[in-house]
Amino acid sequence: MSTLTATPGQTIGPFFHYALPFDGDRELVAPGTPGAVLLHGTVTDGAGAPLQDALVEIWQADPAGVVPQRTGSMRRDGHTFTGFGRSSTDITGRYTFTTLEPGSVDGGLPFFGVTVFARGLLNRLFTRAYLPLDGAEPDALLTSVGDRAGTLVVERDEHGLRFDVRLQGEGETVFLTYPGHS
Amino acid sequence: MTPQPETQAVIDAEIAATAHAYEQAGVEETQPRVDYAPYRSSLLRHPTKDPHHADPEGIELWAPCFGERDIDPLEADLTIQRGGEPQGEKMLVTGRVVDGDGRPVRRQLVEIWQANAGGRYIHKRDQHPAPLDPSFTGVGRCLTDDDGTYSFTTIKPGPYPWRNHLNAWRPAHIHFSLFGTDFTQRMITQMYFPGDPLFALDPIYQSIVDPKARERLVSTYDHDLSVPEVLMGYRWDIVLTGSHRTPLEEEDHQ
Ligand SMILES: [Fe+3]
Known about the structure:
Chain B: Its EC number is 1.13.11.3. Chain B: Belongs to the intradiol ring-cleavage dioxygenase family. Chain B: InterPro entries: Intradiol_dOase_C, Intradiol_dOase_core, Intradiol_RC_Dioxygenase, PCDO_beta_N, Protocat_dOase_b. The structure holds 2 protein chains of 2 kinds. Chain A is built from 1 helix and 10 strands, in the order E-E-E-E-E-E-H-E-E-E-E. Chain A is an all-beta fold. Chain A has a single domain, classed as Aromatic compound dioxygenase (Protocatechuate 3,4-Dioxygenase, subunit A, Sandwich), CATH 2.60.130. In chain A, strands 1, 4, 7, 8 and 9 form a 5-stranded mixed beta sheet that branches. In chain A, strands 3-2-5-6 form a 4-stranded antiparallel beta sheet, with no helix packed on it. In chain A, a hairpin with a 3-residue loop joins strand 7 and strand 8. By secondary structure, chain B is of the alpha+beta class. In chain B, 13% of the residues lie in helices and 22% in strands. Chain B has 4 helices and 12 strands. The longest helix of chain B is centred in the first third of the chain and has 18 residues, at 8-25. Chains A and B meet through strand 5, strand 6 and strand 10 of A and strand 1, strand 3, strand 9 and strand 12 of B. Strand 10 of chain A pairs parallel with strand 1 of chain B, so a sheet runs across the interface. The complex binds fe (iii) ion (FE). Fe (iii) ion is lined by residues 170, 173, 175 of chain B.
């Protein structure tokens, strides 16, 4: 039971690019690593226009479903999988990560935890990017969101895994709130 | 013909109308509204559907770890990064990061970025003609200690103009990025300075429609933190949401 009220969030603003990105931020594994996959997508607004000033973060299990608890995301050593990645969007609104497909944690469907920040977005947004179900039964969350569940599942394309984020309007991504959030 | 930018009075009226409706509703809000029209950039960038309730599971019950390997302790001092002394009012900003149950968030990453004393960012898209300071980058990082305390030495940022409306100025602020012990605690916010005359005029600050909630973003001047003849001290504590793991699970993991 929470006793303290959380500090309010605020927009990331337009000027984070010289502060938050770091070398290797979007390469959870080096390109060419066995099993490496590209997770990518575009962040768009309510008019379908791409956001050039969004920041997407992912947090994920390793392929065996183990939650990494290792340091080194900001100074990658080339072999430690830390499970954390950060990618600012480019001029076309696109973000990219080179990573490994997450495994199932405690029997749940595998997914990437995703956080989205942007100029114009007054608070961060959480969502999940599930791996393609490939015949698996949807879990409780996917079932509960009904016909919007597709916005939470990545698609396999010629580059790897595609997960677009639509902040508003047609195909608006399902964003999540957790107990304790207000 | 390009439309005339709107005046501060137009924005003020919208801020006041929303504040009035909030008072009438009588339901406490503690976070900013994402749908807050006076901040014009939010119009097309806020979700229109309510967020969906999820119980955290798997990876969401944990947070990424950062350590000595990630951060150089010198990154917490923004006044030494370029060799020379930056222009402006030198300050210490420190505080504790705790979760909703008051437990310290230990050994976790805090990142900050800010304008220089003249209100200018080292960012290619910052059009404010105030001078850059060759001795100041405005970027800092540190890890909280075992008590959840973070600490940065920096200079007080200046207010700066932006183009939300005619004569729009942001109150002086430092951007803060925070991680908790759970993924669900991840947040980014801004710290302000006491008594700023721009508070009432700023749609980003006012997007937190509850006055008590807004004040949680305002640091306090702490004379005991000031160092004679060196710097001014400010204190600002941060509360993340509650952790979903039990203390037992945390012990198991250490
Ligand atoms: Fe700013």
